[in-house]
Amino acid sequence: MLLFLPLLHYALKTGLAEGVDDVHRNGVIQLQNGWMYVHDERNIPPLGRIGDPEDIIATVLVEDGEINADTYQPMPAYRVCTSYGVTKLADGLAGRLKQVHRREKR
What we know:
Elements: H1 4-18, H2 22-31, E1 34-39, E2 56-63, E3 66-74, E4 81-82, E5 85-86, H3 91-105
Antiparallel strand pairs: 1-2, 2-3, 4-5
């Protein structure tokens, strides 16, 4: 059985690679090239700003409008629980985490 953080990062990495989340797909379209931050939804930063380090789950490189999943990097400063609450993911990524968790339970 995997611990929560490794399970979370596996689910997010595969979910981003497969484009399961509208929020991050749109972010990729806007960014086109560069590092994209995967933020926790519990404390979303203002448009165009980078969130607090404890709310950045990971970073991933976007090249020519595509996520390069091999560059997925978990952020060591990320916290599962902060004064804003516990982990909250965008719908598509939350769905992927549930799917991975169900599969892992078997």
